Beta-glucosidase (Georgenia wutianyii), 465 residues
Amino acid sequence: MTRALPEGFVLGSATASYQVEGAAREDGRGPSIWDTFSHTPGRVWNGDTGDVACDHYHRFDQDLDLMAELGLQAYRFSVAWPRIQPTGRGEANTAGLDFYDRLVDGLLERGIRPVATLYHWDLPQALEDNGGWPARDTASAFADYAAIMGKRLGDRVSTWTTLNEPWCSAYLGYASGAHAPGRTEHAAALAAVHHLNLGHGLALQALRSEVSGDPDYSVTLNFHVLRGEDDAVRQIDGLANRVFLQPMLEGGYPTDVIEDTASVTDWAFVRDGDAEAIHQPIDVLGVNYYSTTAVRLWDGRSERLTADGHKGAAASPWPGAERVEFPPQPGPYTEMGWNIEPAGLTELLLDLHRRYPDLPLMITENGAAFADEVVPDASQPGGLAVHDEKRVAYVRDHVGAVLDAVDAGADVRGYFVWSLLDNFEWGYGYSKRFGIVRVDYETLERIPKDSALWFADLGRTRRLD
Ligand code: PNW
């Protein structure tokens, strides 16, 4: 069956600053928590760091040409806060601002829409030294930074996204410790949840007062699509999804989450007026989706299963959910060990549409890590090819799942494949490749994979086979 993409449906690709830029100590950039974390032995696979990454900071012009060749309509990138404010506060660093200025202008020259995320996990280390996201001050510092960005790029950016996946920032950063800053304090993780939510609301207010254009405002969440027993599903849905959705879109926290976590924290960090500050209008909700999660109540006797995609982490990312376990999912799997289930995306989009019927949705990330192989191919410009048919199938099936949701009434505006380039995959370093374009980490050469050529074709024909 061949299906047409809806009119106006945007195809793009995404990256994040620490994962692609490199140039970690150049032009006045200060250290972020990911510099500290990746340079701490034992934290990241193979001791990999983002010091060089894809060297996108120096090669962005070539990468922009690549995006144009692939016919991308939009590019989702993130701004490295420590390039703008090396210590997270005070005077803006002109060289840092200039870089994003050139990037945005380069996109516009090529007819590609700039979709900017303000926070994709590279918190200035100085702010972590003052307590990080568990500290309230970080939320107001974030709003000051948002104001700087809104003022400088607000005439040209199409979509402003405050946070990328605050679930990861709060729970992987402060509960399981699998991500920077690597803390394992469950009460602090819930305080981080609140201050990320607050930062989101304050940043939207700051942006709205500084921006001169008429962009869309958004936030990107990574949703957990859950399978399993009712009470386990309710509890994890609360911690993973509703603890962000409800304050941002309805105002206030879900009472069941507060009750479930009562032994961890009394939520005294929530002050009068916070609910209103967080609950700011957004124009579009960013949805990141990769997989589904199975849950059930643990019987307390057998070994508790933690196979929820966080293997190897010392502690659980789920505060107050000691009674929930995460049984393994049936395959097939990607290289991350994440099960492949496109129907979960359709389900998620329809569920969000049911809960928030007037809110447009955007797939801000979807993609897959596979072990790609480079083969000689005289028909390719560089003489090399990557036949990543598994990634082609993954992206094709997930775009199809989005169209299923659209057919059933969901308002989905577009799809961004994660990622444009192979890049620094956080705790997994360079061992996992998500790119539709291969990066040779020795020469830093880019090789479009078959998935990139396929995606370009989808953009040209606007038809999914
Ligand atoms: C997202 N988990 O990260 C991020 O937004 C990207 O930067 C990242 O490269 C991509 O997905 C692929 O991992 C996640 O453990 C990291 O559940 C970890 C999890 C989810 C998302």
